[in-house]
UniProtKB/TrEMBL annotation:
One of its GO terms (molecular function) is oxidoreductase activity. The lineage of its organism: Bacteria, Bacillati, Bacillota, Bacilli, Bacillales. Keywords: Oxidoreductase. This is 2-hydroxyacid dehydrogenase. Pfam families: 2-Hacid_dh, 2-Hacid_dh_C. It is an enzyme of class 1 (oxidoreductase).
Amino acid sequence: MKPKVIVYNRIPEDLMEKLSSFCDAYQCSPESEEFFHHLPTAKGMIGSGYTIDENLLDKAPELKIVSNVSVGYNNLNIEELTKRGIMATNTPDVLTETTADTIFGLLLATARRMPELDRYVKAGKWEASITEELFGNDVHHKTLGMIGMGRIGAAVAERAHFGFKMNILYHNRTRKPSMENRLDASYVSLDHLLQNSDFVCVMVPLTPETANLIGEREFKLMKKSAIFINGSRGKVVKEEDLIKALEDKEILAAGLDVYREEPIDPESPLLRMDHCVTLPHIGSATAETRYKMAELAVENLIQGLQGNKPPSLINDVIV
Ligand SMILES: NC(=O)C1=CN([C@@H]2O[C@H](COP(=O)(O)OP(=O)(O)OC[C@H]3O[C@@H](n4cnc5c(N)ncnc54)[C@H](O)[C@@H]3O)[C@@H](O)[C@H]2O)C=CC1
Ligand SMILES: O=C(O)C(=O)CO
């Protein structure tokens, strides 16, 4: 008998077919009755974003593997999965370059006020050459402070160094001598980075250590001309403090791809600020990259269900 798998986000048709040749795959949303009907007998789950916690796992006693279609896995309770002998996998690497493109694009758009000026043109306000009050800020030759010099952080820093001749400061759990050599990057304390960067970019995973990492104290340490970019997870930043820092002009502007609650509350003050560029969590959202993520997630799931080590296993569990 083929193992039962719950597919709780849409995956491309051909990958669904591949999955179906190994498993009995049921596409159903976590809000549906069908999802909870299949949960007690499911051996595998594949999807993204949905919280897999103790409560859900209690309803899935047969589960062997959870295949997350994202690199970030803060939605998974890894400790609980490991305790129960359930494999957890994610999709690193295949989205690194695309996400770095998005985050560097967000940085440029924020510095050069592109969304605001796009609205200005479309509103028919462009009647003469724009003047000082609408000027942006240079990016080239400025200092980028990267918090989290992992795969994506490094790819953003590469764009900054090679493409824009930026000076790179970074703060990370461990030093990265290769980045220091290749990008002439300097490893500094968090406070030094905050005080000396023109652009502060956050690319750490959301963990108990990084939750609320950036708040009032950190915004106050930044330059008044600093541009803050968050491409990691919303909960790394105290959003109320970010709103206050933007309102009080503690920093110049922010570019955000992620929020504490997603989708963001339409009433959020961030949505009324021209000096805050807001994207709908699109770091990896190109057709090619989303396909590669789904492909890797399917491969992880199939390998795990066949008793092999999945290519991107997160926890130390093999069944
Ligand atoms: N906006 C989007 O659409 C996307 C967001 N992401 C987010 O980006 C995160 C990073 O992804 P990758 O670069 O692939 O992960 P990675 O694991 O390669 O890099 C994370 C880096 O953060 C560092 N780090 C962890 N805790 C830290 C701490 N407390 N202080 C300083 N540094 C710390 C690690 O040492 C590592 O170098 C993901 O976990 C995810 O949350 C990832 C992809 C797309
Ligand atoms: O992969 C991730 O962690 C994302 O945020 C979406 O690609």
